[in-house]
Write a structure and sequence with these properties.
Length: 131
């Protein structure tokens, strides 16, 4: 199984470099894995106190570790992107959106563990300020 995780990590690296060469916004590469990590958090945080499956049981790397690895590779990907004379990246970093989603998931998991009625939990942090 460790070889499968190694291959997955290499595939993430190669995919990010292809995206850079194709002038995509390489900062978005880690978003999928951050969203997967949040989904795993929701699934493991509801109902009973089940813990997520340890990584050594999986053929794939942990989702959050994959996202962190892709973010670690960003300087190299951005350099490749610049070598292709791609247009400048937008000022808005697509990774910023995940911060709000992460806060919402944390609120959802906390409410679920506290056995709160989730229909009464605000969906957006700004709704708390208005209350």
């Amino acid at each position: 199984m460790p070889h499968s995780r190694t291959v997955e990590k290499e595939a993430d690296h190669v995919g990010l470099m292809f995206a850079a060469r194709a002038c995509f916004d390489v900062r978005a590469g880690s978003l999928l894995w951050k969203k997967m990590s949040l989904q795993e958090k929701v699934m493991s945080g509801e109902g009973d106190e089940t813990l997520p499956l340890p990584e050594f049981f999986s053929t794939h790397p942990d989702s959050l570790k994959r996202a962190q690895h892709l973010d670690f590779l960003l300087p190299q990907a951005e350099a490749w992107r610049n070598d292709m004379s791609c247009p400048k990246l937008p000022k808005e970093d697509p990774r910023e959106a995940i911060k709000l989603l992460s806060a919402l998931v944390d609120n959802h998991v906390a409410a679920s563990k506290a056995k709160q009625d989730l229909r009464k939990v605000p969906l957006h942090p700004e709704a708390v300020k208005k209350s």
